[in-house]
Amino acid sequence: MMANRVERHMIFATHPYYPMLDEYCFRSKNLYNFANYQVRQTFFQHGTYLSYNKLDKLLKTEGMDTDYRAMPMAQCAQQTLRMLHQNWQSFFKSMKDWAKNKDKYTGRPKPPKYLKKDGRYVLVLTNQSCKVVDEQITFPACFQGFRLKTNMKGKLQQVRFVPKHRHIIVEVVYKIPIPTQKQDNNRYISIDLGLDN
């Protein structure tokens, strides 16, 4: 059995790579908002949901690919679209639950909103783009030599850049094996301390 673990690092505004990472998080927000606009328009005008695969294909077409191509890698763009897809799936799930149990909610659930124009959004890199070499995570060439020292003891899954106010939290997600517990064979030992209560 495997378990996910997260190692967190903070990159402050004084770090030399902060402007580059901040720009990538800004581009991720732009893609999220543009993709959310496409999904919302389809949902409100036609009453249908633009699935992840259709949305990915639509955003790769000529004329609509500006924000998609602005991302550092295609996988980063796909991860942003997957997070938007998860947000919409949560909305549909809450709508079904709201229809059955209206007393659990204060009002009707709302679809995912746009992010702030000057905001930032999470940037995700998978284990296909980053590698662990000599206890350091190496990133693709578009990250201009950025490396991250790590203490992880498992298999790398993904690296998330989570923008906060004046710093970025780097979350390294990895898997570790959980040792199997021995079965209870009803054999117990006890010690009589000889104390009187």
UniProtKB/TrEMBL annotation:
Protein name as it appears in the record: Putative transposase
Organism: Anoxybacillus pushchinoensis
